Amino acid sequence: MKFIGITGGVGAGKTEILNYIRKHYKCEIYLADSVARQLQEPGTECFRALVRLLGKEILLADGTLDRTRMADRIFRDPGLLEQVNGIVHPAVRDFLLDRLHMAEQSGETELFFVEAALLIETGFRELVDELWYIYADEGVRRERLAKERGYSPEKTARIMASQLSEETFRQNCDFVIDNSGSLKESYEQIDRKLEAYTWQE
């Protein structure tokens, strides 16, 4: 079984790539952001640690985390971001490694994927068998974000400026999928890469 990380900048089209893989291959796919949210539900150790760090004022009336207040606290005190990441990232990592072990034991999964924009920054380079970079031309990404998410040019520029450069992504990744063109072209790149690892429907 191959453990593959999927990363790339905002608007690169990671979701479409993963949807294709999910449909055509015997795999398990985890989105790190979704896992992180799941691990921050009330009753979890991650939730309790965040409340200890940030105080009960970050809770909504229903006892769940108020993410707007959390973001405001972190914005006002940048040192908190490192502490929050120190709680959340190890929890996500442990969860994924546990699921990886279960998938290996089951013998039914041929490919195990984890997707996150921050895989390189959070140390997954040392854990995965391969790291894939989903690339798309900056102009294409800007157009997609405006059309599909309604992002303003300013918002897109802020997000892009906060992420790793194309050069850094390429230096740290083993395989690049150019998702600037048609999805058919991207799917062909995936199939060529994966045909050596697994079967396809």
Explained architecture:
The chain has 201 residues and is an alpha/beta fold. It has 2 domains: 1-26 and 110-194, 3-Layer(aba) Sandwich (Rossmann fold), CATH 3.40.50; 29-98, no CATH class. 53% of the residues lie in helices and 13% in strands. It is built from 9 helices and 5 strands. The chain has helices spanning 14-24, 32-39, 45-54, 67-76, 79-106, 138-148, 153-162, 166-172, 183-194; strands at residues 2-7, 27-31, 111-115, 130-135, 175-178. The protein has a 5-stranded parallel sheet, sandwiched between helices. Helix 1 (14-24) crosses helix 9. The chain is globular.
Draw up the topology in text.
Blueprint: E1 2-7, H1 14-24, E2 27-31, H2 32-39, H3 45-54, H4 67-76, H5 79-106, E3 111-115, E4 130-135, H6 138-148, H7 153-162, H8 166-172, E5 175-178, H9 183-194
Helix pairs in contact: 1-9, 2-5, 3-5
In short:
By secondary structure, the chain is α/β, with parallel strands linked by helices. It has helices at 14-24, 32-39, 45-54, 67-76, 79-106, 138-148, 153-162, 166-172, 183-194; strands at residues 2-7, 27-31, 111-115, 130-135, 175-178. It folds into two domains: 1-26 and 110-194, Rossmann fold (3-Layer(aba) Sandwich), CATH 3.40.50.300; 29-98, no CATH class.
Number of helices: 9
The mean pLDDT is 93
Quickly count the domains: 2
Give the strand tally. 5
Q: Looking at this structure, what is the CATH superfamily of the largest domain? A: P-loop containing nucleotide triphosphate hydrolases
CATH architecture of the largest domain: 3-Layer(aba) Sandwich
Sequence of strands across the biggest β-sheet: 2-3-1-4-5
